């Protein structure tokens, strides 16, 4: 762990980072509480680190494009059921239910404290990436700056992450506390029983890979290798669908010409030949190296 004096330039970084992590980047906190490890408590709030903007479609009646709405109806008689007559039930056998009331949920002995309770610290490299599934920014709240920075820097220096449990809404989650640039992240994790065993899926039949095939495959990988630049990747399907919607709106909802069909790849017969063709295609798609003065673009 790094020791800092009052004159350490890192203090300026901590003040700047705490301002940004406390702000939550303008997003609304979905949870407020504290990180707890040992006797240390750090007030924080959780903010979504990702977003997924889906295109929303309504179901319409084809004859007049009237929106279709849903009603809550009982299977036994088809009558609509008002909300005040609806209860939650668990189907323990086909067609047999037991009603679970609010007091039954309250009997579950899980203390829903507003705490990210760190249980252990482990090496990040020891965890299968499949365990992680949803990240949140942990914004430090008033009075927690020093302890927040201490935990962040301690984790960074040790190469470890905190394994914690946290209750969000009505569900307990396994989670990881990770250092991320100037702040901390909380990443929700799957419990072990939620992961399917790889043995449940078919593995390729055992066979010896020939040296020519391996060399060609390595050459193809090398020809397609590049530095990680996330801005290079886009949701092509969403962009194409948005374009189709815009074109239909522009044409008054009329049908558009059928898209051109693309050739489907054939079954692989001569693997080396296919690899050779792939390498040629990859080399053609790579942009040629430019000579002369470089034009530096301003960062967005």
How would you explain this protein's 3D organization?
The protein is 26% helix and 23% strand. The chain has 300 residues and is of the alpha+beta class. Strand 7 and strand 8 form a beta hairpin. Helix 4 packs parallel to helix 6. The longest helix has 15 residues, at 236-250. The chain is extended and about 65 Å long.
**Separate helix tally:** 6
Any idea of the CATH class of one domain?
Mainly Beta
Q: What is Rg? A: 28 Å
| Topology order in helix (H) and strand (E) letters | HEEEEHEEHEEEHHH
CA distance, first residue to last residue: 35 Å
SSE-based structural type: alpha+beta
The CATH topology of one domain is given as: Ku70, Chain: A, Domain 2
| Biggest sheet: strand arrangement | 1-2-6-9-8-7-5
- Portion of residues within helices: 25-40%
Kindly report the average pLDDT value.
83
Q: Unreliable runs, pLDDT <50, ≥5 residues? A: 1-21, 291-300
Strand % is: 15-25%
> How many extended strands?
9
CATH architecture of one domain: Beta Barrel
């Amino acid at each position: 762990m790094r020791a800092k004096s009052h004159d350490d330039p890192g203090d300026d970084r901590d003040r700047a980072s705490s301002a940004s992590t406390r702000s939550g980047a303008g997003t609304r906190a979905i949870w407020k509480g504290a990180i707890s490890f040992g006797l240390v408590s750090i007030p924080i709030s959780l903010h979504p680190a990702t977003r997924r903007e889906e295109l929303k479609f309504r179901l319409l009646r084809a004859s007049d494009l009237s929106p279709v709405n849903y009603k809550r109806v009982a299977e036994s008689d088809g009558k609509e059921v008002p909300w005040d007559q609806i209860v939650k039930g668990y189907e323990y056998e086909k067609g047999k239910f037991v009603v679970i009331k609010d007091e039954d949920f309250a009997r579950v002995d899980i203390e829903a404290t507003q705490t990210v309770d760190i249980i252990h610290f482990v090496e990040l490299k020891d965890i299968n990436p499949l365990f992680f599934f949803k990240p949140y920014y942990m914004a430090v709240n008033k009075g927690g700056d020093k302890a927040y920075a201490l935990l962040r820097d301690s984790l960074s220096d040790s190469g470890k992450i905190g394994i914690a449990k946290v209750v969000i809404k009505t569900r307990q989650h396994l989670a990881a506390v990770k250092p991320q640039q100037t702040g901390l992240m909380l990443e929700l994790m799957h419990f072990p029983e939620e992961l399917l065993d790889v043995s449940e899926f078919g593995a390729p039949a055992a066979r010896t890979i020939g040296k020519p095939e391996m060399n060609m495959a390595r050459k193809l990988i090398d020809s397609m290798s590049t530095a990680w630049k996330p801005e290079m990747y886009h949701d092509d399907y969403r962009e194409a669908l948005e374009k189709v919607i815009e074109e239909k709106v522009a044409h008054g909802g009329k049908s558009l010409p059928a898209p051109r069909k693309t050739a489907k790849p054939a079954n692989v017969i001569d693997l080396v030949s296919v690899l050779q063709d792939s390498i040629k295609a990859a080399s053609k798609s790579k942009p040629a190296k430019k000579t002369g003065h470089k034009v530096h673009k301003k960062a967005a």
